[in-house]
Amino acid sequence: MQYFSDTTLNHMKPQQGLSERYQRRALDVTLAAKLTLTYGKYHLAMLHRQLAMSKEQTTYQQAEQQAAMMNQMTIFHSSPADFMHTKEESTDESIATYREFKRLVEEYADEHFVPSVVEKFCKRVYEDEKHFIFFKPFCNLYYSVYADALLQYQQGRIDYDTFCQEFQELSWTNGKRTPLNGRRLRMYIMSMQEVVEAYKKLSC
């Protein structure tokens, strides 16, 4: 079953002979994928930093309650240890994740993905509480999977069937994978457009 039209695939995979308009769209898709993966690391690094600086410490009883709630809601098993972290652990996680962020920025750097602009973009998005409503909560979940699949497909590291398998949703309640429905796909595309437009405004 083909989940994407040939036109959409051409947008995602630049080829010789495409018009300038299509090439720009392909570059925007690549830019959105790279921004998703780098922002995801930045966001995690900042969250770990907040935990390290927080004066409140999760008790074992609170961790038990959180684990029990997650185990009732999802198919993934959680234990109290998953919700308990010392300040030292949070600090180490923040530093390690920020290094991953910097590594990705350097790896992706080109004339369309400028490190100084990417850092400004990440800071702006992280501090923005009114926009990027879908992007921020999903950047480390579905969106990061889609972004990684898009880049791998563009680079020829995975075939079309593998790409389609990655571009699906995983149900947390029953573990089933299903193709992205129309509403979810539109939501994803709108999020990526918002991200690219925000980046371009910063780069002007």
Produce a short descriptive summary.
Helices cover 67% and strands 3% of the residues. It is mainly α. The longest helix is centred in the N-terminal third of the chain and has 34 residues, at 20-53.
- Calculate the mean pLDDT score and round it: 80
Q: Give the % helix.
A: 55-70%
Rounded Rg:
19 Å
Order of helices and strands: HHHHHHHHEEH
* N→C terminal distance: 41 Å
Uncertain regions spanning at least 5 consecutive residues: none
| Spatial order of strands in the largest sheet | 1-2
Per the principal axes of the C-alpha atoms, what is the gross shape? globular
> What is the β-strand count?
2
Number of helices: 9
**Biggest pleated-sheet summary:** 2 strands, antiparallel
Strand content: under 5%
Helix/strand class: mainly alpha
Quaternary structure classification: single chain
Furnish the topology, listing elements before pairings:
Elements: H1 6-12, H2 20-53, H3 60-73, H4 87-108, H5 115-127, H6 135-138, H7 142-154, H8 160-166, E1 168-170, E2 177-179, H9 182-203
Antiparallel strand pairs: 1-2
Helix pairs in contact: 2-4, 2-5, 2-7, 2-9, 5-9, 7-8
